[in-house]
Design brief:
The structure holds three protein chains of three kinds.
Chain A: H1 6-27, H2 33-41, E1 45-47, E2 52-56, E3 62-64, H3 65-78, E4 82-85, E5 91-96, H4 101-109, E6 127-128, H5 143-153, E7 168-171, E8 185-192, E9 195-202, E10 215-221, H6 222-239, H7 250-257, H8 259-274, H9 282-291, H10 310-319, E11 320-322, E12 328-333, E13 344-346, H11 347-360, E14 364-367, E15 373-379, H12 383-392, E16 407-408, H13 423-432, H14 436-442, E17 447-450, E18 464-471, E19 474-481, E20 493-494, H15 501-518, H16 525-532, H17 535-542
Parallel strand pairs in A: 6-7, 7-8, 16-17, 17-18
Antiparallel strand pairs in A: 1-2, 2-5, 3-14, 4-5, 4-13, 8-9, 9-10, 11-12, 12-15, 14-15, 18-19, 19-20
Chain B: E1 5-6, E2 18-19, H1 20-24, E3 31-34, E4 52-57, H2 64-74, E5 80-85, H3 92-98, E6 102-105, H4 111-119, H5 135-140
Chain C: E1 2-7, E2 14-17, E3 22-23, H1 36-45, E4 50-60, E5 63-66, H2 69-76
Antiparallel strand pairs in C: 1-2, 1-4, 2-3, 4-5
Classes of the chains: A alpha+beta, B alpha/beta, C alpha+beta.
């Protein structure tokens, strides 16, 4: 993975001191909260329901064992012994003190980590495929492109006060594991005549007005990448709406002027920008790419595995995915054990995962947008030991992509924007479907819960989505069906009137029963919904 | 009103800035003021007779002026480029990178804080309008 | 009744105006009547509170009860981690 040189380190260290100074000025009253707010947000520090919350960046979801240990250390020393992995592949801490925040950043900087641009109206942490570098179906590792974008976007002088936040994802496979087209810019790497380039999609997003990004450019090579995205951003910064915060995302601009007109303006801007020489040379791209070279795999490693332990076999079938290297596998660690809070991990669990990475996965981990953790490069022969260790730490839930592998935002238990709680709903649904045979029979079923219209829980992209709303001071939950954040991206549709907390759990069960009754062979819930439409589900819910 | 901060050697331009519409309406003005929603590209045919462009920042959150500055500098404008309005100390380094070389902040900016802020980052990741050398160039000579 | 609430600036803790100062317990909160905004302005300027605002509440035998569930959760802590709340012994249902 990428390692800082003196330049990267100098920039991150300077950032720590800058924020230390900003906090000092705030505590001394030299700046108002209104002036301080954008400064702290650009460093991932929110004032949430119960305390300050710090969001730490995990660039493109990749981190090392020592970095993961540092996250555990921060949880113990400065927080309350746990952290929350987010749908943006980051981690956030819920009980941070403002006056300790500079020290936290200083500790993070010792392991090449930071909280830069994890919030604010700027270019956020770049996200990517959690299987990058391990997936058999990728045309290249997308992370060198993501790292190039990370450096370009860090403290970009022109794009730090955008109309609204800006999220970029890079993938390199036809299977989209990063909800690429639901980003402000989604880049899919493809090969054309042996040359690697990116298909550029612009204007996707969730939130109040969900949109799937249209393709704006079908091929951009690495040596034009930064000029092209700079042009995309400049058009947005100049013409994105600033009169209404709810209409300020780039998706609204593109929706209003049309993809063709946006493309025309970007092309025009690109000609001007390209002449500036802001694209690094091939040597820089090669330098970055070298950090992502495959680890020293054992070429003779065997794929043979003993499946006699039935619990191990279930976990193997559900959570372990094929690796491009024979004799290796990708291990998904579910943070969704029944009763758990989706995405939460204790400091001890974080340490366990860090140790496993060091010992069995070439010191590498990934955070997924589904709020799980991945050990990307595990030798098949080590899988039993990895599983035993995970199981002992309560981390061996065998439910990847099943109905209990729920994405849930923190909701009204933690978030000051939320209208309703998300986590208790996730817990109740997980309990209802806890039976392993039952959830496996339902097959792949992505259930996603947001506690408000901002959609941090990706409810629009859930096969089953749940949106918490405030109904005259009480929590109410709307049900959506038919969304997908994958390569077959679609937006869920609301079934009808909402439900209370227990009612929504029953409603989920009812729609799964409809599916079981009408599914054809091999159909996932989503496939059945797309074939039969909303009616049978509505009938079961409201008929 | 804070003091005018200038990073230029020439004398400050005294002529009051006129609106973009007034400027384009065949005036002989040499100073022009650009509001956030206005297109700085309209000035490009006239750059050689402009001595001061004042870019308005009615609220610090509105970042359109950063692009305005870069558009003008990229087109070769070398006159004074002034950020006026809700300009805060933590924004000045970014504005400098976008090509602003004078500042008329609504509220006084503490000079020691500003100095520290301008000197804080030794390196930058990306090229912009200020001539700072991006780290990729330092890495590869 | 009207309560004044906000967060402690350095720690971020949720705090409530008691009539003479700030407490971490909603039970200590005092009715500010129509004075809330005036107190807020003074206290915020002195940085004894951050992000302060006035909320509606009802007087009950157990003390003030905020009108909105969001404020009741703020007063208690996360209902899914009762061990981290100010009242680990109560049921999370108290916020409903």
């Amino acid at each position: 993975m990428y390692q800082y040189d003196k330049y990267d380190q100098s920039i991150v260290d300077a950032r720590v001191e800058e924020f230390r100074d900003q906090v000092k000025r705030r505590l001394a009253g030299e700046i108002t909260e209104d002036q301080f707010k954008p400064l702290r947000l650009m460093n991932g520090l929110y004032l949430q329901l119960h305390a300050y919350m710090l969001r730490v960046a995990v660039p493109y979801g990749t981190l090392s064992g020592p970095q993961m240990h540092m996250l555990a250390h921060i949880a113990r020393k400065y927080d309350r012994g746990y952290g929350h992995f987010t749908t943006r592949q980051n981690i956030q801490y819920n009980w941070i003190k403002l006056d300790e925040c500079p020290d936290i950043l200083a500790e993070l900087a010792t392991v090449e980590m930071h909280a830069i641009q994890t919030s604010g109206n700027c270019i956020r942490n770049i996200s990517s495929d959690q299987y990058a570098g391990a997936a058999a179906d990728e045309v290249a590792d997308p992370r060198p492109w993501a790292e190039l974008l990370r450096q370009w976007s860090t403290f970009h002088p022109e794009f730090t006060y955008l109309p609204r936040k800006f999220k970029i994802a890079v993938i390199a496979a036809d299977e989209d594991r990063a909800a690429m087209r639901l980003h402000d810019i989604g880049i899919q790497l493809v090969k054309k005549d042996g040359v690697l380039g990116g298909r550029i999609f612009v204007g996707g997003g969730m939130g109040r007005t969900p949109m799937i990004a249209p393709e704006i450019k079908n091929f951009v090579t690495a040596d034009d990448l930064l000029s092209y995205v700079e042009a995309c951003l400049r058009v947005y910064n100049r013409y994105g709406r600033r009169d209404n915060i709810y209409k300020a995302r780039i998706k609204i601009l593109i929706h209003e002027i049309g993809a063709d007109e946006y493309r025309r303006q970007v092309e025009e801007e690109f000609v001007a920008v390209k002449a500036l020489g802001i694209d690094p040379p091939q040597a820089e791209f090669d330098r970055i790419t070298a950090f992502f070279a495959p680890p020293a795999f054992d070429a003779g490693a065997s794929d043979a595995i003993d499946r006699t332990d039935p619990d191990f076999a279930v976990w193997l079938d559900q959570n372990v995915k094929p690796h491009k290297q024979p004799g290796y596998a990708i291990v998904n660690i579910s943070l969704k054990k029944t009763g758990d809070i989706p995405g939460d991990a204790s400091a001890d669990q974080i340490d366990v995962m860090a140790d496993l990475a060091t010992k069995y996965s070439f010191d590498e981990l990934r955070v997924t947008h589904a709020q799980n953790i991945v050990l990307p490069h595990v030798a098949v022969r080590d899988l039993p030991e990895v599983w035993r260790t995970l199981d002992a730490a309560g981390l061996a839930a065998a439910n990847l992509d099943l109905i209990t592998d729920i994405i849930a935002c923190p909701g009204l238990d933690y978030c000051s924007l939320a209208n309703a709680r998300s986590i208790p709903v996730a817990q109740k649904i997980a309990s209802r479907f806890a039976d392993q045979g039952r959830q496996r029979d339902l097959g792949e079923l992505k259930l996603k819960i947001s506690g408000c219209i901002n959609a941090c829980g990706h409810h629009h992209a859930g096969h089953i989505g749940i949106l918490g709303v405030d109904k005259k001071g009480t929590e109410n939950y709307q049900l959506l069906l038919g969304g997908s954040g994958a390569e077959d991206a679609s937006l869920g549709k609301i079934t009808g009137p909402g439900f209370d907390e227990d009612g929504i759990v029953d409603a989920v069960e009812k729609v799964t029963n409809v599916y079981l009754g009408v599914r054809a062979d091999g159909e996932r819930f989503l496939d059945t919904y797309r074939r039969v439409g909303m009616e049978p589900f509505k009938e079961a819910l409201y008929g | 009103m804070g003091d005018l901060l200038r990073y230029r050697d020439d004398a400050a331009h005294e002529e009051p800035a006129v609106t973009l519409d007034a400027f384009l309406g065949a005036s002989n003005a040499t100073a022009v003021r650009i509001e956030p929603g206005e297109d700085a590209r309209a000035l490009l045919p006239h750059l050689d007779r402009i001595a001061l462009v004042e870019v308005a920042f009615p609220a610090y959150r509105d970042g359109r002026g950063y692009s305005t500055a870069r558009v003008l500098r990229e087109a070769g404008y070398t006159g004074e480029l002034r950020a006026e309005g809700d300009v805060l100390v933590d924004q000045v380094p970014l504005m400098r990178r976008c090509g602003f070389d004078s500042f008329a902040p609504r509220a006084e900016i503490d000079s020691a804080t500003l100095k520290a802020s301008l000197e804080r980052y030794e390196f930058v990741y990306q090229g912009a309008a200020d001539g700072a050398v991006p780290v990729w160039k330092l890495r590869h000579g | 009744m009207k309560l004044l609430t906000g967060n402690d600036l350095p720690s971020g803790d949720v705090i409530w105006w008691t009539g003479s100062g700030w407490s971490r317990h909603v039970e200590d909160a005092a009715d500010t009547g129509t004075d809330g905004e005036a107190i807020l302005a003074v206290e915020q300027a002195a940085r004894r509170v951050n992000g302060a605002y006035v909320i509606d509440a009802a007087a009950t035998p157990d003390g003030p009860r905020p009108a909105h569930i969001k404020e009741r959760i703020r007063a208690l802590g996360p209902t899914v981690r009762m061990d981290l709340t100010l009242k680990p012994e109560v049921s999370p249902e108290v916020v409903l």
